[in-house]
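Priority: low. Protein: Membrane-associated protein. Input follows.
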Amino acid sequence: MHQIIELFKELLDPKWIIGHGGFYLLILIIFAETGLFVGFFLPGDSLLFIAGFYGKDIVDSLHGTPLFVVMVLVALGGVLGNYVGYWFGRKSGPLLFSRKDTFFFKKKHLYQAKEFFEKYGGGAIFLARFLPIVRTFAPIVAGIVQMDSRRFMIYNLLGSFSWVFSMMSIGYFLGRAFPELEHRLDIIIVILILITTLPVILKLIFGKTKPINPS
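Result:
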């Protein structure tokens, strides 16, 4: 059991992901975290930051492909992930509210994303990109409430590109300006995770989720 836990921790380590799958695994994880409800636990923010920090290595692995192009492709992976979640919500969303909780699916996350969506409207699709867990379920909720597809896609594009470009750019410029930070990445990642997840965690612990009619 200890070995399984250690392997699972390793698989969620952004540095391990960049080193063992690089660009392709990066796109796959961003796609999964932003559209598949089983991807809510994936380390999207820290992964993008690390990808930017090691941007030169990723560029070299892709035979000199410009980092800008890499970021565009990653952002498009996030756009596609959100659209898959939106489509899934439109097709089978109401059934999710009657689905039993499993290890990969917690109905409370779906309710919370719905509350977030109702509070911020279409802008929730943009804002959710910067909130772990919520960004996974927001497009599904958008599909459930039948958000206009064109309006959804506008916020989807703006949110994905803003999220990917900001996180990777911060990592890239810090890596260029302070390369010695490579030895402190674990601390930086912990701080980043706390900043991005603390509001959500506090809401999950202390917030009261209203029973919402999915229709």
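The chain has one domain: 2-206. The chain is about 75% helix and 0% strand.
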